[in-house]
Amino acid sequence: MKIESIMWLLPIFFMIHDFEEIIFAKLWVEKNSNYIKEKVPKLALNIISHLEKLSTASFALAVAEEFILLAIIVFCSVQFEWYSFFAAILIGYLLHVIMHFAQGILLKKFIPTIITGIISAIYGIYALSYLNNLDLLNWKYIAILTPVIVLFIIFNAIFAHFLAKHLNIMLERK
Known about the structure:
Blueprint: H1 3-39, H2 45-53, H3 56-79, H4 83-107, H5 114-133, H6 139-173
Helix pairs in contact: 1-2, 1-3, 1-4, 1-5, 3-6, 4-5, 4-6
């Protein structure tokens, strides 16, 4: 398989994973709200409350913003052969997937995103191994860059959900 094809699979796996979230998350959170609130740390209650209030369309806007950004990043990574940068982005995505696994363990319950999370994790490990076997990765650079990218992902998620919240407000006014 071509390196470019492997890299372009990231936005595809991201969207498959996020389609699962868009389709099932709201219903699942509403159905399990009381159980979730009993199990999660108090710090996470604001996040649960935010997710309960968001419409599916508003949540989809947050996903769309993240997807557009990811597509631009992957395009640049492919175009300019930024393999280590791509690897750090991929690791950030894998940490997001691991977070979903941790949520399932914390809640002791099957949650939407687990199935696509497993598939995404397999892809991510394969892609990192493939790039590494071709000796295209600078692991020191990746180690420095990954925490920065994780912070960026967190702040971007906050921004994306800020947009979603405001779309939600606009939709409720009509």
